[in-house]
Amino acid sequence: MRKLLTLLASVVLVMTLGGFTPADGFDRGLISVTFDDGWTSQHQNALPVLDKYGIPATMYIISGSVNDQPAYMTQAQIQDFADRGHEIASHSVTHPHLRDLSPAQLTAELEESQATLRQMFGPSAATSFASPYAEYSDATLAAIRQLYTNHRAFDDDGTEYSGFNTRTTYDAYTLRVKFVESTTSTATVQGWIDAAKADNVWLILSYHEVGENIGGGVYTTDTAVLDADMKAVRDSGLAVVTVAQGAAEVLSQTSGN
Predict the structure, then answer these.
(1) Which of 138, 169, 161 is nearest to 250 (CA)?
(2) Given this model, what pLDDT does residue 254 score?
(3) Between vectors from CA 242 to CA 120 and to CA 148, what angle results, nearest 5°?
(4) Residue 106 is assigned to a structural domain of this protein
């Protein structure tokens, strides 16, 4: 009887860990690792870790910062990521508050970033977009839809299970994300991974600076922590995909939504 109760408890735990219903799940659980802005520390400190664990990442690049100053990557450094199969995505030209721009300014931020990144890294670059500051509106989304196949947004309603992309709530232009901050532990990331695995949902992780904090805010991760996080990602049993790959995979599963 004790063994039976233990088994039942384990089944209940697996069924409820993610807080979702079976209908929320995709055909398999997915996880994506993303990096914002194009900081040089991503090349210096994150790329060796990604290589170590075989993790493909999506790099959201501020196109106007490429080759612009030492804090941001050069074209050659970003090409290093592209050559290894990482996705090069757009994070605008100047990282503005998109909702504050005029229609002409918004169009320029979206079109010029995509054009520059494709000129530098080829036609497969800049199919994915992430809004600076995770800010967007109906107007900005309408403009983004004209150029990009998906848009990484943000969803945090304060509950334990916000930030996951599920079959029943999926929208390619409001992709939900978990931001990893300086205080985010690997145990926390592991909990997110466990929830995604339990329910076959899509977890997108967002990192910024790695091993440095030039920006001076909370969006930085120690290199050792990133190493532990990426080991957890590799060992998760989840399909590790770029954002573009993930969006393409779930498209047919959600086309009837």
Answers:
(1) 169
(2) 87
(3) 60
(4) no
Angle CA 78–105–171, to nearest 5: 70
Task: Provide the domain count of the chain.
Answer: 1
Q: Does 16 fall in a domain? A: no
* pLDDT digits 0-9 by tens, 166-182: 999 899 999 999 999 99
Residue 107 lies in a domain: no
Over the chain (257 residues), the average pLDDT of each successive run of 10 is: 39 49 92 98 98 98 96 98 98 98 98 98 98 97 98 79 89 96 97 96 97 96 98 98 98 79
Contact 88, 119 (CB under 8 A): no
Residues in CB range of 163: below 8 A, 6 or more apart? 154, 155, 156, 176, 177, 178, 192, 203
* 17/203 Cα distance (integer angstroms): 14
The span from the CA of 179 to the CA of 156, in Å, is: 10
Within-domain flag for 241: yes
Helix (H/G/I), strand (E/B), else coil: 246: helix
Q: Is the pTM of this model over 0.85?
A: yes
Indicate the residue type of 41: S
